[in-house]
Amino acid sequence: MKYQHIGASDIYASRVALGLMRIADKTHEEAVEIIKTAYDAGINFFDHADIYGGGKSELVFAKAMKELNIPREKYYLQSKVGIKPGIAYDFSMEHILKSVDEILERLETDYLDSLLLHRADMLWEPEEIAKAFKILKENGKVRKFGVSNMHQFQLSYLKSKLDFPIIANQLQFSIMHADMVSTGTFVNTNLKNDGFNAIGIIDYLREHNITIQAWSPFQYGRYEGVFIDNDKFPELNEKLDEIAKKYRTTKTTLSVAWILRHPANIQTIIGTMNPKRIKECAQATEIILSREEWYEIYIAAGNRIL
Ligand SMILES: NC(=O)c1ccc[n+]([C@@H]2O[C@H](COP(=O)([O-])OP(=O)(O)OC[C@H]3O[C@@H](n4cnc5c(N)ncnc54)[C@H](OP(=O)(O)O)[C@@H]3O)[C@@H](O)[C@H]2O)c1
């Protein structure tokens, strides 16, 4: 496993992190095995959100962690707030503070290493968010702050109200969801490019030392399914097979290695709850794809180049 700083912070986390969005329906024994496998493979960063499993994911995780008895300072905990089922979004100070208290209670911890705003609240007031973040920082409940699914304009506005850095922006990114990188190629052409929503994000984040955390590294579309061994993507699977053979690895490992190869130093948040696959994902930091291999995979996935 290799490690990286998350943004301008002292969080030195595994480049492959475990997302717990899918842990709520696991038994206690399964949860213990999942987390132990990840930790033993070098994964020391765990990504939550208050809405995962309606709060149950954090509960299942905390119970498993208690049994594993890993000292709190040996791993990083991140959670997210701001999505309010039944309403939509809520970035009010009151909601942020209340949500963090509830998260800490469920996770049975005194502090989060990082807190992300989950998805932009249309009615947001950055001054109010700044007040909430300041309170959470001062009372020691949250060490560092970040966002998720935000554009550079939103980030720039939020940053202008804060006295401390935003360290991460969690965004969907994978071989099959590569708009963030593909849009750069289409600048000033008259070609139709579906990646309009991602224009400029990656460059802004790199310039401002904000770590991209890639979510759903194995999904295509919006949770439509997994692209590995999927008959819909024969060319991609053939190419992954071919390169995997060369490295004596698996398509799963390679798909994470493809994300990690980008020089933006992207951290990958995997969501598999299968111990064997967790180990495969963790091995991805040992493979450094060549420029040619990276582009071959990109093209085999149906991404265009000019
Ligand atoms: N910020 C946001 O808006 C946002 C949105 C979504 C997710 N997230 C975060 O990102 C994390 C990952 O999301 P995700 O779970 O959608 O990501 P993912 O890693 O792309 O998908 C994992 C799912 O794919 C299945 N899968 C099947 N074949 C697989 C293979 N060969 N390799 C890997 N997985 C395979 C897994 O099943 P098995 O368990 O059986 O392996 C699991 O159900 C979440 O846990 C969450 O922390 C954030």
UniProtKB/TrEMBL annotation:
| CDD domains attached to this UniProt entry | AKR_BsYcsN_EcYdhF-like
Tell whether Oxidoreductase is among the UniProt keywords: yes
Instruction: Give the top-level enzyme category.
Output: oxidoreductase
The terms describing its cellular component in GO are: cytosol
EC number(s) on record? 1.-.-.-
- Domain of life the protein comes from: Bacteria
**Keywords, alphabetical:** Oxidoreductase
Question: Entry's Pfam families?
Answer: Aldo_ket_red
UniProt GO molecular function: oxidoreductase activity
Domain NADP-dependent oxidoreductase, residue spans: 16-297
The name this protein carries in UniProt is Oxidoreductase YdhF
Q: Which organism is it from?
A: Haploplasma axanthum
